[in-house]
Amino acid sequence: MNSTPAKVLERVGKITRRVDGTALAKGKPVFADDIHLPGMLHLKILRSPHAHAHIREIRTEKALKTPGVVLILTHKDFPVHYFTTAGQGYPEPSPRDIRILDDTVRFVGDRVAVVVAETLEAAEAALAVIEVDYDILPANFDPEKAQAGNPVLHPETGKIDIHDAAHNVASHLEATLGDIQKGFEESKWVFEGRYSTPYAQQAHIEPHITLTWLDENERLVIRTSTQVPFHVRRIVAEVLNYPMRNIRVIKPRVGGAFGGKQEILNEDLCAAVTLRTGRPARLEFTRAEELYAARSRHPQIVKFKIGVNADHTIHAIDMDILENCGAYGPHALTVMSVTAQKALTLYRSPHVHVRGKAVYTNLSVAGAYRGYGAPQGFFALESIMDEIAHNLDIDPIAFRHKNYVTAGEDVPIAKILGEGREGFPVVIESTGLHDCLEEGKKLIEWDALRTAEKSGVQRRGVGVACAAQGSGIAGIDMGAVFIKMNEDASFNLLMGATDLGTGSDTALAQIAAEVLEVPVEKILVYSSDTDMTPFDTGAYASSTTFISGGAVKKAAEKLKARILKQGLILLDEKDGTIEKGVVIGSGGDRISYEEICTRSFYTENQTQLMATASHMSYDSPPPFNATFADVTVDVETGLVRVNKIVSVTDAGQVINPHMAEGQVEGAIPQSLGMALTEFMIFDESGRPVNTNFRDYHIYTAIDMPDIITRFIHTHEPNGPFGAKAVAEIPINGPAVAVTNAIFNACGVRIRELPITPEKILSKFDEVES
Amino acid sequence: MHIKFYLNGKVVEADVPAGMNLLEYLRSVSVFSVKRGCDHGECGSCTVLMDDKTRNACLILMGTLDGERIETLEGLNADRRMELMQAAFLDEGAIQCGYCTPAMLLALESLLRANSKPDDAAIKAAFSGIYCRCTGYVKPMVAAKKVVMGEVDG
Which domain does B44 fall in, by range? Predict the structure, then answer.
């Protein structure tokens, strides 16, 4: 056994300023739209006013006469080619069911045409005079009626990987462990519940924005606010049938994404215009477009049936998912897979059965949004766990302690349910969930609040929810890194990993600095440029710290070994070590990094000290979280006030404490928004009603409850320096912790989000009578 | 339309199309710290200071600006108090994507010009006109309090 004590970490786990922070703090022009390009054209998309229609004719003559209008593109300008806008691993598990521009529109907001003009105003003016003759088709807005096939949204032949087009089933999954019938027969108690979650918006403050131009060699440059620069390059090449070698995608600073930019929504049209005109082009979404024509969280109806033994252990779980993907199916299968896989990871059960269907409706298109299906699944699971605990008259925390997976346990569902294909076996190697619950219980004052008298108009209650997520997608995600050394012992860290504002450039620089034993300022990060950096699947699925971080660690270790070897050659020694940027030979001679690099460039045994590495993983170790809510319900008005949220997370070794806390602090209001203030409303003809921030209310500073964030330290053997992911896990718990707290406060059980005063009042009347 | 106003302490004379708003104008002259988030005066990303008070640039028509005094972060970056605020934001991890950061800093600057010792409620109220989707406002509040308490190492 190796008995060397673990090395004390000097950069990892330490509070560190963001490497891009000063530029951001000074408001420097670092975002996609912060440049001027001479002769730039502006694009505006004409969007469908109908939920389902066939375009009989589009007449653009009048619009083309609008002063300043250069070009109008419609479906007639593109060959029929079906793709998916989802930026995910290739071949994508999402159905290929969409065209760049189509002669059928399937939701209010679908693309009809694009106007290209010298100014934005001219493009907007021209939109109004494009004449479109629509043949209105029947539309369906109810996911529970979608399978009747009235109408069929995607009857066209040539669409690929739609599970059952005639019944509007985009994707389907089913998995079984053990014998579910036998499991229920053997259970002492069986509980059932139906839970639903609505559309919700990522609401990144920077809208989707893309600029394209031809560089001096006539190569297409796409400067875009994206999570997936390499998928942008591949999909644009495919959709426009343009050689990939002639495309360069640059991701500058991104003003928030949360899954919304894991999608090719404007790069294709912008690139098409630049290729047709030879001129720079710009396409930015309005906030209204963001709110109904971009992407959103899949609404889901999740039914659970859970069998429980006399000793309060779970014996059988049946899960049924109905997912509404809207008019197209980007991420339809994989989101649903995550819903199932993450929920069914948390608690052990010998008998499990899950089936899921993602169905098309004539509503806004769902896609990736932080948590990626897991928040929907945990809303259902953690609601029914609370209901079971109440029915059995046991403490909800005690019930969870009895049932969650512990270290050393196998998670058999992970192998059966991968993301879009068979997965890989998972054994839990690290978990701090026990401590997350116990720490949170103290911080929220669980016992006192839970058992306090519940009477009067203002009733206070407390609720809890647990959750698991993953760290990257097992067997799929890959990140690559190139590091080179400079004479002043600085290092250029070039990587495909995509910082969305999460701070991954900084966290990954800390990992490199830790390995190379240099200050973080010596690591010069350049990321996400398809010409200049190696490949990375992209920033999604909580993958960057774990997967890309693994690549950084490997590359830095390789480079460190190269530096040691070169240093020893220069010292004329056989053995030695590195200590704080100095190579020390076994004879005691020392040579600094600076001298090694300078002499290696100019005088002796000349070479560039550099290293590359890539990393993938067949493990996706789950981070765990326990979230607690303290709420007050006014039983006369139905208003719910969230007083406090306590969120305790096991993310393994935290790389950057402030940034990890920031992930949790930002996820909480997103989840509370889904529960209480944010939901997309459609009228009876499928038109979106709340298409601005006044009516779609995201949390502001004065809406915020008190937030307490804590981490339970664990060491994940598969992660860089023991790290697991942190980006998505904290969004799973707050909404359901709140509904559980509402139940504790006043006996009202909310099984359908959003929580509205009307629902509280009508259910409270039922409870009271 | 010809207008004359003060931008970051300098006189600006410009001929602008009728109907142009201050957000469009500022970005057209490379004042890029002022961001577009909604164009409807809701998100606060385009916050500027007008006579020391925060205003949404997207709601200000250029034609109404004659003689007004407009400030943006570009004009305050060398200011000592702004440097301290920026240091506090950096040290406390109050910046994630950074898109709303210039607006938050201006909101805090405006508050401190009116009230050098604001309480937590006043800081929250000052931030309430600016949407941030990353931080939950937790660390910006911590950073602002540090500035107010004079605890920043500049």
Answer: 2-74
